[in-house]
Design brief:
The protein contains 3 helices and 10 strands; from the N terminus they run E-E-E-E-E-E-E-H-E-E-E-H-H. By secondary structure, the chain is of the alpha+beta class. The strands form 3 sheets. A 4-stranded mixed beta sheet has the order 7-4-9-8, sandwiched between helices. Strands 1-2-3 form a 3-stranded antiparallel beta sheet, with no helix packed on it.
Amino acid sequence: MNLREKTLSENILFTGNIITVHLDEVQLPNGKTATREVVEHPGGVCVAALNDNDQLLFVRQYRYPYGEVLLELPAGKLSPGEDPLECGKRELQEETGAVAQHYESLGRLYPSPGYCGEIIHMFYASGLTYGEMNPDEDEFLEVERIPLEKAVQMVLDNEITDAKTQTAVLKVAEKRRRNLL
């Protein structure tokens, strides 16, 4: 069975600094039509940086849509045309002051495929050295170092609620368990 939908029309409702929202009309595989609400996002990165003491670097920051301070791995938005690895290197340094000697892809994450086209590129980083943090002027962060096994337990206990962070933490732990990192 062909599961693809064909776009018949696209109506842009909003264009902002980060997202574009549109309402599309699509033709379904059975020939009928439906509407799709879509949020376009340039994508982002997430970096699971593990130090020599088996601690992951995290940042705490306020997330306005939830009205909460969240514990997350360093992450950021891709600029148009930017290489995801270069973005990850930049975000790790800006948010934590760390620079890594080694990076490895942990794959891509589609955070909410029902309505959003965002893709998050996840990386593992090791061989860390430290310098000065350089957050964006509208970023207010606290850096924390948490042992990998404790971070896994925090994911399982729902103390870490961010999807990209949960996924990257669990991927690093499992790859370590299998001796793949």
